[in-house]
Structures are given as C-alpha cells and as structure tokens.
Amino acid sequence: MKKELFGKEGGKPLYLQVYKRIKSEIETGRLTPGMKLPSKRKFAENLGVSVITIENAYEKLVSEGYIYSRPQSGFYVEKLDIVTGKDQSLTLEVSDSKYEKKDEGIRYDFTSNRNVNELFPLSTWSKVARRVIAEEGQNILNPAPPHGTRVLRRAIARHLWEFRGMNVNPDNIVIGAGTEYLYGILVQLLGRDKIYALEDPGYIKISKVYKANDVNIVYIPFDENGIDTEKLSEADADILHISPTYHFPTGESMLAGKRYELLRIAEAKENRFIIEDDFDSELRQVGTPMPTFMQMDRSGRVIYMNTFTKTLSPTIRVAYMVLPDELAREFHEKLGFYNCSVSNFQQYLVAEFINEGYFASHINRLRRYYKKEREVLLSELDKSVFLGMARVRERGSGLQLLIDINLDCSDEAIREAALRAGVRVATLSQYYIDGNKGRGVLFLNYSSIPVSDIPDAVRLLDEALRSVSEQAEV
C-alpha cells in the first residue's frame, strides 16, 4: 500500500477512508486472496496516521469478511467470490426529501451536537462486544425488566457515585432509548393534567416532545441570574424541567441560592417535581460541576436525567433517569407492563464498558481533547479580524459558546451568509419562544469539528461576518 493511495474525502474519518480503499482494492482484484497486509504500525507510519486509525479500519474489514487475522502473523485478504456487473433485477432510488437535513456545501457545522467520530474507541467497543456475546450469550436473549437490566443499573449507580458523588439506589434507575423517550414516560407517570414549566431560552426539542404528549406548557424566562422564580410561582407549575449544571444554550450554571429557592417552591405544593437534565456534565472544561439537585433534595422532589448519547455516540440510544422512592414505586405499579426500549445486548455492552473502566478513560480522553479544542477556538476567535472585536460569552461548562456581534442586520442574514461560506451556525434567538429576543448573538457548538479544522472554520465564519458587516454599512 502506498501513501498516495489515501487522501482527504470531504471530512470523512480517516479509518473509513483507509477501510474503503482497501475494500476497493480487494473487490477490484488488486489485492488477491491470501495476500498479507502491512502490519498496523508499519502501515500507520507509511500513511502518517495513528495506529488506532489502521486498527479501526482492519477491525471493520474483518467484521465484514474482507480480511482475516492469523495469531502472531498478521492480516490477510480473504478469498471471496466477487460478483461483477450490475444486477438489473431490482433498483431502489431514494430521492431528496424535504424532511432530511441537506449538508451540500457545508464544510463545518457549529450546530451539531455530535462528537468527532474518531474519538469513539471503536476497537475497544468491538472487543467488549465480542466478550459480552461470548460470556452473556443467554442473558442477552432473555427479556429485561421494564426499568432495564440490573447489571446496567448497577453500573450507572457506580458511575454516578464516581463522577457526581451521587448515592442512588439501582432499583430507582429507569433505562430508556434516549431522553425523548423518557420524557414521554414521565408524562404518563406524572400526568397530562399537570402544568409543565420549561426554560426560555431552552432546548427546543424538549418543548416539541412535551407538545407531542399533549401537556400544558408554560415558558419561564431565564437570564444570567437564572430562572425567574417570581414568574415560576405565578405560573403555579407542577413540573419544572431545568438544566442547572449547564444551561442550554447560555452555558450558565445555577448558583446554590437559586437551587434552594426552587426546591422550596417544589416543596410548597403536593406532587410538584423538578426534572434535572444533567447533560454534558461529564465534559465540563473548567472547574468541577456543582452538586446535583438530587443531592440537595431532602423531600423526594427531584428526578435526575442523563444520557450516553453525548459521551459515546448519538447512535447509542441509551439514556436513564433516577426517580425518587415514591415515583419509583409508582412507575412499577402503573407502567411496569412496558418492555424496556433498549436491547439487552446494548445494555450489557454499556455496563461492561463502564465496569471495566473504559468509560472513565474515554471521558478523560474527551475532556483532554475538548480542552485543547476550546483553547484553539478561543485563540482563533481572538485573532480574527471581525470576531476578535466581538464579546465571547463562555463559562467552560459545556462544548458551546455565545458571541455578541454588533451587526445592523437580521439573524437570518447572518446565518445565510455563514451558510454561503460553508459554515452552519445558529443564533441565540432560535432558542427563544419569541424569536425576536436574543438577537445579534451567535451560538457555536464546536463538539463535532476536529481541532485541526478550527482555524479554517473560524476564518470562513469571520469572512462571512465581515461581508455582512460591509453590506450593512453600504
């Protein structure tokens, strides 16, 4: 294999580029059955990539049957009966859909909440998956309890103790396929006749899920001082859904005084609860996160929620909530007929990943990576011609930041100019119920952009904003 065989392919992960090229060489016959592939280390040195990149590519080729390994020998091309020519018996064409997000021309997406794909420990994940199949073969075929397998609930309880100092009963944990699914479960548990209070601005999808569940929603203003408790009391809401450790999208962390005030409001009326959404808490960049609401709660009014979607991958749909004792009993009485929405295999896999210490190592790796990315991003913003004069609002509590820009134009014009430059951005106004609030503020989520691409992404965005500024002055 020669180095020039591999080049950049529109931002695709390097291991996929290597995998695709080797697969193509096998299918076209340039790599013949029985031919030995270069060692992972030698191949990585030749291509100028990491050994883990080659390992991930080889793992994928082995799993699909294109190559095989011999212990203490290496990797070899498998013998395949390659079918040439085009099968005319069936043609399936997929047309563009208005419901699909189009990414043509988008080089950098500052709205994506995904991690950089190459940060995912694919080889370790594959190794753990093989072990789970070998050791838990019968268990993964058995039905799980409605709140999830005990092995995963125990693993989550251990993780919460180690990372958040929370001492929770595994029997109070409920596993679900994503937080959106769990929101729906909570509506059934708490009741559709309740008033649900959401932060404004806030994560729009939460509002959509509650609306789809046909509940009464009120929006409570949120600013640098936290949620407006006076407005909350006036609304007489039964359920408050908040993100106190890292408020989305402002990045503010709720101070202790405000937290105790909200707990007093919850305790003042029977059957009032606070849903604590603790997303991104493991990836805090500066300092340590404050104790959770659940740790401060003494009356059983807090429901804690988190997910592995952010720390692992959006395709790993495993989320969980921790219910207070009373609600945990009601869950089993009222909703115990449900089947758990996460497969046993995935539950055992995540549990093993946690118990063997791989998850903790992965989080530490993510923190180091995003700490470096944050430093590079802030440095590039400071050096920019236009953005260097703007005010950056960033607390180091998540993987997003806000930028106040002084432009005499609409937020729509700003977003469109960035899109023309190949950069997708959001504006703070998009997260307000009243879209006229929060205007003139960029919202950047940098989690999905590789560190090496940050300088170019900031350059393109800066040029787009300068262009808009010049047009506004004419």
Shape: globular
Average pLDDT level = 86
The total count of strands amounts to 16
Question: What radius of gyration results from the CA coordinates?
Answer: 25 Å
Q: What structural class do you assign from the helix and strand content?
A: alpha/beta
Strand count, sense and closure of the main sheet? 8 strands, mixed
Task: Identify the strand order in the major beta sheet.
Answer: 4-11-10-9-8-5-6-7
Distance between the termini: 56 Å
Uncertain runs are: 1-6, 84-91
Strand content: 5-15%
State the share of residues found in helices, binned by percent.
25-40%
Number of helical elements: 15
Verbal overview:
By secondary structure, this protein is α/β, with parallel strands linked by helices. Helices cover 39% and strands 14% of the residues. The protein has helices at residues 14-27, 40-47, 51-63, 122-135, 150-164, 179-190, 204-212, 229-235, 256-267, 293-296, 325-335, 344-355, 358-383, 411-420, 454-473, and strands at residues 67-70, 74-77, 108-109, 173-176, 195-200, 216-223, 226-227, 239-242, 273-277, 302-307, 319-322, 391-393, 400-404, 423-424, 426-427, 441-445. Strands 4-11-10-9-8-5-6-7 form an 8-stranded mixed beta sheet. A 4-stranded antiparallel beta sheet has the order 12-13-16-15, with no helix packed on it. The chain has a two-stranded antiparallel sheet with strand order 1-2. Helix 4 crosses helix 12 (344-355). Mean pLDDT is 86; it is low at 1-6 and 84-91.
